[in-house]
Amino acid sequence: MNIFLAASALLTGIGVFMTGVLNLRQSLQYLMQGKLKNTIRTFGKNRYKAAGVGATFAALMHSSGAVATLTIGLVHTGGLTLLAAGAVILGANIGTTIVGITAASGILGFGSALSLFVFFGILITLLAKKNFSKILGQAFIGLGLIFFGMQTMSNSFAEKELAVVVGQAFKSIKIAPMLVLFSALITAILQSSSSMVALTITMVASQTIPLKTALFIVLGADAGTCITAIIAGLGTTKDSKRAALIQLLFNVFGVVLFTLVLSFCGEVVAHWMTLLCPNIALSVSMFHLFFNLITVIIALPLLNHLIKLTHLMIK
Predict the structure, then answer these.
(1) Nearest to 204, CA basis, from 99, 95, 66, 103
(2) Residue 248, Cα to own-chain centre: how many angstroms?
(3) Would you call 235 helix, strand, or coil by DSSP?
(4) Could you report the per-residue pLDDT of 91-142, keeping only the tens digit for each?
(5) Which candidate, 106, 155, 184, 267, has a CA 20 to 30 Å from the CA of 307?
(6) SS3 per-residue string spanning 239-289
(7) Distance between CA atoms of 311 and 112, rounded to whole angstroms?
(8) What proportions of the chain, in percent to the nearest 5, are helix, strand and coil?
């Protein structure tokens, strides 16, 4: 495999992965239909329960952006308070980390076997008579494409020349904040933090980039994913814009905090992560989960103050 074919395989893998995430998300949205709206309204009065709802549905739909977009829409129609919306959006950041864990499992030797979900999904879709079963089959196809995409990306880095080129591109950015911004920019263009995290896991697993570099890229992906909420807030009410701003402020706060920590003791963090979780691909996904858990634990009790800040910024 030459570098051109390897690069084509990498881009194909990213495309297949994104298609799988989108297919799974759309299928689950259809299957759940109005359940998300009703659940958010039911538990919205308690910020901790609302955060739990956001985490659960973001994990099911493999997307914090989808949950944030729906939540902003509910605020726009007056169906949800800003406090409840903020809690749901914060919780969604935890739920979306399931994508990284799923991606890591796709390159732990299970990728090829788990790709069989595509076959079973097609079988269910063709044989099922009820619409619900057909949509469930589509969800299985999406899940299988996620694993197949990860396997394809992983295989592309078997071409050493591609691994060197991609690795050098990231390693050449010596300043940590610039690496975070670069990752955020790519994520904003893709409008998918899931794809960026999955690509990062693939690169670190193939030793294309070191673990410390991967952690900064993951932080950037969390910052870049805010673009979805910002777009959803355009042309809406002031409270809807404030809901989108809550996610932006929250993510930027967390990214800045962890960037500072990693800048001073990144090698120590990477060393302890390797000791606690020898599988480097899984350790990246665990860091993503830990990062979001810590920031949500800090931000949830301070949510009222965060809302006051959005009122000062959007009058």
Answers:
(1) 103
(2) 15
(3) coil
(4) 988 988 887 777 776 555 555 566 677 888 888 888 888 888 888 888 888 8
(5) 184
(6) HHHHHHHHHHHHHHHHHHHHHHHHHHHHHHHHHHHHHHCCCHHHHHHHHHH
(7) 50
(8) 85, 0, 15
Domain that holds residue 167: 3-313
Residues 307, 315, 65, 295, CA torsion sign: negative
What pTM was computed for the model? 0.80
Alpha-carbon span 185 to 235, nearest angstrom: 23
C-alpha span between 210 and 231 (Å, rounded) = 33
Q: Total domain count for the chain?
A: 1
Name residue, tokens 């995430």: 21
For residue 162, pLDDT beyond 80: no
How far are the Cα atoms of 88, 117, 190, 206, 230 from residue 103, in angstroms, in the given order?
24, 14, 17, 14, 26
* Amino acid letter, residue 276: L
Q: How many other CB atoms are found less than 10 A from the CB of residue 86? A: 31
- Cα separation of 23 and 261, whole Å? 37
The helix or strand, by DSSP H or E, that contains position 48, with its residue range, turns out to be: helix 47-61
- DSSP H helices in 157-237: 160-171, 176-190, 193-205, 211-224, 226-233
Distance CA 243, CA 31 (A): 26
Residue with structure tokens 């899931």? 194
Instruction: Give the span between the Cα atoms of 110 and 148, in whole angstroms.
Output: 10
210 token code pair = 């070191």
Two tokens, residue 137: 């089959």
**How many beta carbons lie within 10 A of that of residue 124, not counting itself?**
18
Inter-residue contact 217 to 282 (CB < 8 Å): no
Output the six-digit token pair for 15.
């495309």
